[in-house]
Amino acid sequence: MKVKMSDFLNNTKPSIKKLIENLSKDFKCVSVLGTDVCGKLYVVQKTGISIKDSFWSERGFVVKVHNGINYSEFSFNEISENNIDNTAEEIRRKVKSQIEVLKNKVNINSYDLINEEKIQKSFVGEVKILPEETSDKEIIEKMTAIKDKAFTLSKLLIDVRVRYQRAHVSKIFLSNNKDLAQSYIWSEGAIFSIVRQDNKTKYSYSPLSGLKASELLDEMSEKVDETVDISIKLLNSSPVTPGEYDCICSPDVSGIIAHEAFGHGVEMDMFVKNRAKAVQYMDKAVASKLVTMHDGAASASDVSSYLFDDEGVLGTDTIVIDKGILKKGISDTLSALKLGTKPTGNGKRESFERKAYSRMTNTYFSAGTDKLEDMIASIEFGYLLDAPTSGMEDPKNWGIQCMVNYGLEIKNGKLTGNIVSPVVLTGYVPDLLKSISMVSGKVELCGSGACGKGHKEYVKVSCGGPYIKAKVRLG
């Protein structure tokens, strides 16, 4: 069913156009981003039920103007025909004051005018079940049924946590040349199974996401048995012996490697600040010839798929690595202007109150042709790694570290049933990627978490890939 565009944004669109017309008398480049995101977060567990607004809920506007030197931005919550003149005058006053202060204190970086094509486009997503057709009570009942189903599987369970979040995203972007609108719904969810035996506590989880609504809950229900089974097996896990191993990385683990290894490392605002080693390796081999890596809102369908980014640039499919060769970075508008490149539609804001940065969207390795059973059979001794929990990297020096919940032991080409946990995957990015020797034939993505820029500025992203075989350092 078609998703409905925000009435709030539709009703304010005429006022925004008048504000742009007013400001265009004094500024050569004027644009307005309007955003209206509403959503809810549901949690069901043994100790209770929680329903609250989604972290991603927001409503407001960003005005961007070229101030004669570079760009100034202003955010606010409301606009109407009655206050357009006052809003425009306030923006003029703040721009003048801002420039005078900055001129006296710092050297101001200059930026050219953004060269905008004339574009009028809109996108409306589809879901199986519209949010207004499912009550909070019905959602909680479905989630409770998932929890209760899990508790029937083992007496070792001490808690089951079922988490579901959805967001209805509506945005418009208007300028003298652009008239863009989009409205879509994404959802994410996860089941956490927590078990205890002989004072030893372990957990496992299964995440899901997509451009879906409450139909995601049906998919979550299908994951219950597997999630509980892994958590029970983890009770008999042992720490991994540190060393270098032949490993198979699940789609979730290969996704976090893609995200950390050459996701942050090719965000091109880091090129401008000389904080990324990747700029020195363009058109050079950084990975195995089996490795092709994509990023882009138009490259896949998941939580970070959209028509246009928060700067009004249409989403693209960027091939970051092509058969092992580093080809391109991902950029916001200003970093592209500074570097003389074309923006890739990766300018994203945590909210309308925040700055736009170069950010990842859907980041993943392309599929290969190998079969998982053949990949397992090729390993004399190693592990199948699954369930990543976090990751970080150093774009300046290409170090990577990923926390993985468990590894399934492989010996003489077969899974032995032994399990190690937790696992730290670490190493030097090119060494890891160049060691990739087999790639399976199916790509899976998940966007159940969020990505920060450093320690802040969270945005929704998805990452993934096929199963990959690589030589990795574990600890």
What does it look like?
The protein has 475 residues and is an alpha+beta fold. It has two domains: 7-101 and 120-236, PmbA/TldD fold (2-Layer Sandwich); 243-474, no CATH class. Helix content is 22%, strand content 39%. It is built from ten helices and 25 strands. It has helices spanning 7-23, 84-105, 136-151, 216-221, 224-233, 251-262, 269-272, 333-339, 372-377, 429-434; strands spanning 30-45, 48-53, 58-66, 71-76, 119-124, 157-175, 178-197, 200-210, 243-249, 293-295, 318-322, 325-326, 347-348, 357-358, 362-365, 381-394, 399-411, 414-420, 423-428, 438-439, 444-446, 450-453, 456-460, 462-465, 468-474. Strands 1, 2, 3, 4, 5, 6, 7 and 8 form an eight-stranded mixed β-sheet that branches. β7 (178-197) and β8 (200-210) form a beta hairpin. α1 crosses α2 (84-105). The longest helix has 22 residues, at 84-105. The model has no long low-confidence stretch (mean pLDDT 96). Belongs to the peptidase U62 family. Residues 242-470 form the Metalloprotease TldD/E C-terminal domain. InterPro entries: Metalloprtase-TldD/E_C, Peptidase_U62_metallo, TldD/PmbA_sf. One of its GO terms (molecular function) is metallopeptidase activity. This is TldD/PmbA family protein.
